[in-house]
Amino acid sequence: MSAVAVLPSVEDMIEARELTKRYGGRTAVDGLTFTVRPGAVTGFLGPNGAGKSTTMRLALGLVRPTAGSVTVAGRRYSELAAPLREAGALLDARAVHGGHTVRRHLLGLARSHGIPARRVDEVLGAVGLESVADRRARGLSLGMAQRLGIAAALIGDPGVLILDEPVNGLDTEGIRWIRALLKSLAAEGRTVFLSSHLMSELELTADRIIVIGRGRLLADTDMRTFIESNSPHATLLRTPAEESGRMRALLEARGAAVRPDAHGRWRVTGPTTTDIGELAREHRIAVHELTPCRSSLEEIYTALTGAAVEYRSTRSADANAEEELSCMPS
Amino acid sequence: MHAVVNTAVTPAPGFREALAFEWTKFTGLRSTLWTTAAAALVTVAGAVFVSLTRSLQPDDTVLGGSLTLSVVGLMIAGVVGALTVCGEYSSGTMATTLAAVPRRGRVPAAKTVLVSAVLYVVGLVSCTVAYLLGDAFLDGSYAQGRPLPALFGIAALFSVVGALGVAIGLVVRHPAGAVTVVIAVLLLPSLFGPLFGDLQRWVAGAAPTAALEKLTQTSDAAPEAVGSLGGWPSLALVTAYTALALAAASGVLCRRDV
Q1: Superfamily per CATH, domain A232-294
Q2: Are residues B38 and A191 in contact, defined by beta-carbon separation less than 8 angstroms?
Q3: Which portions of this protein are annotated as coiled-coil regions (chain B) (predicted)?
Q4: Domain spans of chain A?
Q5: Residue ranges making up the domain that contains B198
Q6: C-beta of residue A206 within 8 angstroms of C-beta of residue A41
């Protein structure tokens, strides 16, 4: 990767306007309007079946919108003169002909745009696949296939990257690697748009976040605002067992929500940590622990998309969330 | 990375690049290369078999007898065309291909040019070798037949049937389904032709295999079975409906979501 930073340019934006796709009676994408800007990693979050892949396929001109439009670098994708130089995509890491070698797969894409063959070696180096360059694609692990998909997306050195679930199948080292790669690509001024159904994957990678559920936009904001505005403050409180009942009654009298957690503490939402401490002092209740915390992003996401989950198990998602209830110290 | 490939000076990719893309994919696969080789091998093997066993009818020609199995070669040519398309659908690479070449009409055009050019060479070389083998081994009791310019027409028929395979592949998408349709298109007209009575000459006569029989001047090419249309007009007829099928199939590709 060159050290030359490229200034962010509006030319590299992805813009969806009232984008809608219906398949028969089912609406996969429902009036989506959003802008993905250069110079940042934008996470595209939603449960399985929320319409993330369809939206990306619409952006790449593979699927035709029922209504609305989506442009890449200011134009409809099909109107781009040299599409791989403008936008690189990874839709499905397994979508490689098993009989082709890793190198051949990339060479074909390079030739489709008159890109010199040495660029193939460059991108192989960038994703760390030099050692398997001459192996047939059917022998690749999912992690290696993801790296090949990212190499293919980078072949035209594009200003826009559209990556559908690129973290799937990567091991810990691979996840760390892709996180650093995506951040550096964004730092070079590129537009990096990646989807995931797991909040935890995006939490450390994305600067901005677009959340959809059942094809509709649920949130479009920067990551910090998203966390701060959506996470209700909670406090973990431990008092001596004989006083915990009284403490709970006092808190509930002031409109706080109080629930026991798995470690014998009260999880209090509503009043601030300070108010809780003051309240305990007023009533001369000993406090053994008072920990301010906020909901994890996973919880926020579950709450946000709970109504919009396409496929739900008979065991309700809320019950699952309750059990895994965690608290991140803020 | 931006420094390495300068987007400002390189011209926008066109049909040449789309063709280079298809050539790279075609030559990188053992499956397509072996299938193409099989079309040639079976044609030559037919000449060797007929020469050794003299299993041709007394009224047959040396050219027709030598090219007995070119009909199987022709079927494989159609399969090659279908597989260049269906291989992309079954592996999921069609989305990648269309993302690289979003002016979709270029994709079937490039595949057709590639497959036709390769099959023309394969057809010409294998049928010429087959004829020369038959000519060397069969004695003078058979009529010779006129190999020139017929061999060029036969090679062209390999090209056209390959293109027909591309069209079928685009519509059917599934490899097994497309191969079945290719075989059916080549086999069924002559199989079911007799059921059509007087129409047999039209039904069986319009098939690519009928054009092949006429061009190879075999004794099977009787007017009552395959009509009185000559070899070259038959080739033109097959070319015409293949062109229509390709145009329609390209239209389907351009309208369909991937």
Answers
A1: YebC, transcriptional regulation domain (3.30.70.980)
A2: no
A3: none
A4: 10-222, 232-294
A5: 15-255
A6: yes
A187 at interface of B, judged by CB pairs closer than 8 A:
no
Query: Is B1 a domain residue?
Result: no
Q: Which of A307, A100, A21, A187 is nearest to B2 (CA)?
A: A187
Dihedral angle sign, alpha carbons of residues B25, B30, B35, B41: positive
For domain A10-222, give the CATH number.
Answer: 3.40.50.300
**Is the separation of the CB atoms in A137 and A101 below 8 Å?**
yes
Stretch 74-103 of chain A: residues touching chain B, C-beta under 8 Å: 77-78, 80-85, 89, 91-92, 94-101
Tens place of pLDDT per residue across chain B (258 aa): 444 444 445 679 999 999 999 999 999 999 999 999 999 999 999 999 999 998 888 889 999 999 999 999 999 999 999 999 999 999 999 999 999 999 999 999 999 999 999 999 999 999 999 999 999 998 888 899 999 999 999 999 999 999 999 999 999 999 999 999 999 999 999 888 888 888 888 888 899 999 999 999 988 888 888 888 899 999 999 999 999 999 999 999 999 999
Chain A residues whose CB is inside 8 A of the B24 CB are 104, 107-108, 111
Report CB contact under 8 Å: B1, A95.
no
